[in-house]
Amino acid sequence: MTEEKKPEERKKRRTATEAAGRVGSMTKAMLANVPQAKGEGRPIAYSFICCCYDEIIRAMDITPHWVENYAGICGAKRDAQRFLERAEAENLSRSLCTYALCGLGFDAWREELGGEMPPDAPWGGQVKPDVMLGSGQMLCDPRNKWFQAAQHYMPDVPTYDLNLPWPPYEEDYDYREVQDDYVKYMVAQLRGLVEFLERHTNRKMDWDRLSELVDLTDRTWNLVHEAYELRRAVPTPMGTGDAMNTMVPLSFMMGTQQGYDFFKELYDELQQKIARKEGVIPDEKYRLLWGGGLPSWFALTDFNYFNSKGAVFPAETTYRMVEALYNFDIDFARITDPLEHIAWRWLKFWTCRYDKTRQRPGSHPDVERLIDYIEDYQIDGVVMHEAFSCRSWHVGLIWQLNLLKKIYRDIPSLVLESDIIDISSYNEADTRARIDAFIDTLEAVKSRAG
Amino acid sequence: MTEYFAGVDIGSTMTKVVIMADAVVARVVGASGPEHRRLANRVMESALADAGLGFSDIAYVVATGYGRINVPFADRQITEISCHARGVASLVPAARTVIDIGGQDCKGIKLKDGRAVDFVMNDKCAAGTGRFLEVIAEALGLSLEEMGELSLQSQHDIEISNTCTVFAEQEVVAKLAEGVAVADLAVGVHKAIATRIHGMVRRLKVEREVVVTGGGALNTGLVRALETKLGLPLLVSPEPLLSGAIGAALLGKDTVRDAAEKGIPVTRSRQPLKEATFFS
Lengths: 450, 280
Known about the structure:
The structure holds two protein chains of two kinds. Chain A is an alpha/beta fold. In chain A, 50% of the residues lie in helices and 10% in strands.
């Protein structure tokens, strides 16, 4: 039976930094904290990353269970298939987001078992929440519908759907003309979330605590930015493989002292490695940009395979959802309302390359970001991953690549094709044959350049 | 003294070996099949016999194709992208784009100065590959060659709407039952494959001259359909089945020449001509 299937044992991926090596145990502890909190009567919220509510739920002592993270863990442990198949048995289309399918399959199964975890659930499983906090912001459309679908199995769990839009880029107008309206709208959304949480969890917002956490998050953003900027060094001390570990504190521990401390340690470690000229690999030949797409969580050892060919990834766009706040054209010190502060931070993150983009006719902010990283990190080639089930993040990747080549330069590129957690879409031999061929083209281009 | 170089291309369907000096002196093509681990050395032995050479006469052996790791006697493994690029560039020096229609994948390669600088591959789906043609030809009761020739006699435009090989086969069988002419169906199939290939290679910004290689290049009907789709005349490689193996041999020759120019020794595998095992 499908339920009896055991996950395939997987060779552990090598990390370049000690900090990234610690993330596995941090993640395990983070997950273990959820059933413990539930046992102690603290409310649990099913949560998504990058929804601007990190500080809000932490200020109200609500424990997040990060559903995307849990699906990723199932994928990394090569144990997602049985949950995907369970969702498919519920007649949910296999072409939907496989994170959502994994989570919904898990919830359907757990509720069918009367609240018991499915057998051998990875890392303890996901407990039934008290609230579910969806998001309708433009990053990812399934996050509107996932929790509404989850209510089929948990009709007694209320959901709040947050909407966090930002002004779209247009070449011929300045977004600042409308930015105040966007912020006003987002603040109303966030205030609605606070009211929802107070109503459904019997917790009161501690506004002073919220302000402290907003400040902590600001400092963490700056620290992450500065730590990642150290990766410009040649040889680079940290690659994207490690960044797929450090995305855990970046995405799931924002607004916590633990998250801040992690990046302080990472910053210090990277500085030490640079002083020792210690790179990800001893002989760095090709510097690559992970230019878009979520990784195949079950195939992170592909990053080691790139390394074995002399290729490193000093930078990636994926999960780098922070910028240096001191570079934004806004004085955050003048904003006293923490919700308004959160809204401005969000808006400025998404619009921070608009002015630069307008300087290059025909360009787009997403492409300007690629160009920034190519230049700042001395990049030789761009690798993207098209995950078939993730439409929102992956639609437009090829368009970005084509535009990059048109308005900037004809940089070598590789597009990998698979999925985030559905291993049935992956073929290691074919993937590595593509990587081999890409390395050949990088070599050919370098040779031509002399 | 003449130096000889061997290229071994183990594809998903066919295993190809060429032995070259200044030109090809021997060529052997055999079916890969499930026993291709054992086949490489046999095909190599056959090629050596044709050339009247012993294995020790070969200065360098390069293996390529999906089975390249199963050639223990090869001195080096090089990807099929690089080998096809080198092979086609030597056969058609004006080539700027290569479309390789293989048994179970399809590749587009962009060339500059005879080397691959960009590529795209379809290895996820049989549609757009030789396998799709084989399945449909079987359903029509034709050989691949017959299907190519027959399609040129078509009188009507037929669309095969399914891109999945299995469902396309069902669709073809259903249309046969409706009385659609086999020649028209063959055209429909070629158009369907050409559409898939076009969708893939257009990412490369196809530039003339465009050379088609691989087993699919032997199908005249498919090449015509692809020309129509691309809106460009296509050149068929003079050695469609051997482009990769020739490129492999030439890259071996380049390796030996570069080493001599730099005054460094050539690293060789020193493995005897034997079949691969799981432990080799």
